Amino acid sequence: MWITRKVEFSASHSCYNQDLSEAENAALYGADANPHGHGHNYSLEVTLEGAPDPVTGMVVDLKAVKQILEREVVEPMDHRHLNHEVPPFDSVVPTTENLAVEIWRRLQPHFAAGPGRLHAIRLYETDDLFVEYEGR
């Protein structure tokens, strides 16, 4: 069985690879290569997998899941410029894809032993753009 918890955060970023020229960055990332950045209201869905506990009827304690998401994702990323305030994005381009991988890296240890194991995350950058990552 899968259960999904959703959180939201706002952050700005610039898609700019320091190893490339301005022209190469502009060709790759277009307007998103602006060094001043631009913002998004991200929506993160975290899906856990497991069997309901026979006593509680729950796969996981959703209050505990919310606390982990707040501590590992929302608090360090909300209202931040990712490139300047959130490692590793001082050296990794904070694309939606890279952001999803980093969020998985932050969450996975908290759910590795169960009872709900991290199955997938879905990170929406906009209403019509998201990345789904399963970390396998």
Jot down its keywords.
single chain; 136 residues; alpha+beta; Tetrahydropterin Synthase, Chain A; 4 helices; 5 strands; 32% helix; elongated; 6-PTP_synth/QueD; metal ion binding; 6-carboxy-5,6,7,8-tetrahydropterin synthase; metal-binding; zinc
Account of the protein in words:
- The structure is a single chain.
- 32% of the residues lie in helices and 30% in strands.
- With 136 residues, it is an alpha+beta fold.
- Helix 2 (62-77) packs across helix 4.
Helix and strand arrangement:
Blueprint: E1 2-13, H1 22-29, E2 38-49, H2 62-77, E3 80-81, H3 82-85, H4 96-111, E4 117-126, E5 129-133
Parallel strand pairs: 1-3
Antiparallel strand pairs: 1-2, 2-4, 4-5
Organism: Paludibaculum fermentans
Cofactor: Zn(2+)
GO molecular function: 6-carboxytetrahydropterin synthase activity; metal ion binding
Write a concise synopsis of the structure shown.
The chain is an alpha+beta fold. Helices cover 32% and strands 30% of the residues.
Order of helices and strands: EHEHEHHEE
Class, according to the CATH hierarchy? Alpha Beta
Distance between the termini: 18 Å
Number of strands: 5
CATH topology: Tetrahydropterin Synthase, Chain A
* Low-pLDDT sequence parts: none
Radius of gyration from the CA trace?
16 Å
General shape: elongated
**Kindly state the mean pLDDT as a whole number?**
95
Helicity, as a percent range: 25-40%
In CATH, what is the homologous superfamily?
6-pyruvoyl tetrahydropterin synthase/QueD
Q: Which structural class should the secondary elements be placed in?
A: alpha+beta
Major pleated sheet: 5 strands, mixed
Individual helix count: 4
Number of domains: 1
Biggest β-sheet: strands ordered side by side in the sheet: 3-1-2-4-5
Q: Kindly estimate the percentage of residues that lie in beta strands according to DSSP.
A: 25-35%
Reported CATH architecture: 2-Layer Sandwich
